[in-house]
Amino acid sequence: MLLSVGGVLVLVVILVALDPQVRESASRMAISGQTPPEVSSVYHRGRELVWFLGGVVREQTSEHWTLMVFLVAGGGLTMFMLRT
User: Fold this and answer.
1) Cβ of 68: how many Cβ atoms within 10 Å?
2) Could you point out which of 22, 27, 46, 52 has its C-alpha 20 to 30 Å from the C-alpha of 37?
3) How far apart are CA 41 and CA 63, in angstroms?
4) Do the beta carbons of residue 31 and residue 37 sit within 8 Å?
């Protein structure tokens, strides 16, 4: 658990260090002590992103079904090899 939290913290620090927009938002949150409205709607945006990605996956699967068969078979074989 602690390793996962540390990994997320490292990613956030890298984002703050590299992206000026993220840095500005983080500094506003640190100074004001309040979360901006963008952060409060994370659940809604996350749900929209999952629906969007699901639609893209369905579309790509219907167009490239042979590739998906190989992908699923390769994933199954990989999991079997890692298990044994």
Assistant:
1) 14
2) 52
3) 33
4) no
CA distances (Å), origin 35, targets 18, 28, 46, 65: 21, 9, 17, 44
Q: Domain limits at 72?
A: 41-84
Q: Tens of pLDDT along 11-42?
A: 777 877 777 777 777 777 667 666 666 665 76
User: Do 47 and 72 belong to one domain?
Assistant: yes
Q: Do both 53 and 36 map to the same domain?
A: no
| CA–CA gap between residue 53 and residue 40 (Å, rounded) | 22
Residues 3 and 25 both lie in one domain: yes
φ, ψ for residue 51, nearest 5 deg: -65, -40
Q: Report the domain count for the chain.
A: 2
Six-digit token string for 55: 């639609």
**Residues 72, 55 share a domain:** yes
pLDDT of residue 32: 67
